[in-house]
Amino acid sequence: MRCLVVADLHYSLPQFDWLLSAASQFDLVIFAGDALDVGSSVDFRAQIVVVKKYLTLLSGITRVILCSGNHDLDERNPEGEKIARWIGEVRELGIACDGDSLTIGDTLFTVCPWWDGPLVKQRIENQLREAGAARLKRWIWVHHAPPANSPTSWGGKRFFGDVELAQWVQSYQPSMVISGHVHQSPFIPDGSWFDRLGETWVFNTGLQPGRPPVHIVIDIDGGTAFWLAAGYEQCIDLNAPLQRPAAPITDPPAWLTSLGQIADPNLARPASATG
C-alpha cells in the first residue's frame, strides 16, 4: 500500500490541481488538515465550496482521509468549542474524516479532529480507546498538530506541538502519526519531517509555497518513507532504528519519479475543480 501525505495546502489551488494529478498513483491520499486558509481574501464559504469540489474529484480517483486543522474550523458546537462542520459533510463522499476509522488490509487508520476544548479532547480520548481495542498489525493516526517536544513540532524558538498527543502516543504506541501544522519544522536546524517516539514514527510534511506541495510518500509494504520538497529528496527506512540525517533518494522507483513529471496546469490546462 502506497500513501500520499499532504497537509497545510491552505487553499492553494495549484497545489490541489497537482494533488488530483498525482492521486492515481496511490492507494490512499492522507490530507492532514488545513485545507482552508483563514487569512485568504477569498470568502471562507467560497473556499469550502471549491475544496469540496476538489475532494469530490479526488474521492473518485482513490481512497481519501481528511482531518481538520485549525484553519478549517467554521462553526462552534453547542458547547462553544470550534469545530470543522464542513469536514463532516465530506463523509458522504466516502472520505474518512474527523472521528472515523478506516481499515485497509491489516492497517487501521484513526482520523482525529482538531480540538479546541475539553469536550472534543475527550471525544478523541474515547476514539483512541475504542480504536485501540480493535487495533490491527499497523495503527496509523492522522492528527493535524504533531506531538510536543519533537523535532516535527520545533518552530525555531520553541515547540508548537500538542502535549496531549504526546501523552496519547506514549500510552498507545501507534505505528505512525501523520501531521502538519508547524510549517517550518522540516527546514530549520533542530527540526525535522520525521521522528520516532518509542515505537511510533511521527511525520510532518512542512509547507512551501508553489507547486507541487511538499509531500510525503509512505510505502507501507516496502517499509520506506520519502519526503519531497523543493531542494530536498530524502527517505528513511521504517524497519530500522531512527537515524539522522535522512538519506538522499538515490534510486527512486518509477512511480515516484513520475510525480516530478506532472504537467503544470498553467501550461497544460488539465480539468480543474474550479472549471
Give the helix/strand layout.
Blueprint: E1 2-6, H1 13-22, E2 28-31, H2 44-59, E3 63-66, E4 75-76, E5 82-83, H3 85-89, E6 101-104, E7 107-111, H4 118-133, E8 138-142, H5 163-172, E9 176-179, E10 194-197, E11 200-204, E12 215-219, E13 224-229, E14 232-237, E15 247-248, H6 254-257, H7 265-268
Parallel strand pairs: 1-2, 2-3, 7-8, 8-9, 9-11
Antiparallel strand pairs: 1-12, 4-5, 6-7, 10-11, 12-13, 13-14, 14-15
What does it look like?
The protein has 275 residues and is of the alpha/beta class. It is 24% helix and 23% strand. It has helices spanning 13-22, 44-59, 85-89, 118-133, 163-172, 254-257, 265-268; strands at 2-6, 28-31, 63-66, 75-76, 82-83, 101-104, 107-111, 138-142, 176-179, 194-197, 200-204, 215-219, 224-229, 232-237, 247-248. The strands form 3 sheets. A 7-stranded mixed sheet has the order 3-2-1-12-13-14-15, with helices on one face. It has a 6-stranded mixed sheet with strand order 6-7-8-9-11-10, covered by helices on one side. Strands 4-5 form a two-stranded antiparallel ribbon. Strand 10 (194-197) and strand 11 form a beta hairpin. The longest helix has 16 residues, at 44-59. The relative contact order is 0.15.
Order of helices and strands: EHEHEEEHEEHEHEEEEEEEHH
Helices, by number, come to 7
Overall pLDDT score: 94
> What's the total number of strands?
15
The assigned structural class equals alpha/beta
Low-confidence region ranges: 268-275
What would you report as the Rg, rounded to the nearest angstrom? 17 Å
Helix content: 10-25%
Regarding quaternary structure, how should these chains be classified?
A: single chain
Largest sheet, spatial ordering of strands? 3-2-1-12-13-14-15
- The first-to-last residue Cα distance is 32 Å
Give the overall shape, derived from the CA principal axes.
globular
Give a short account of the largest sheet. 7 strands, mixed
How large a portion of the residues is in β-strands, by DSSP E? 15-25%
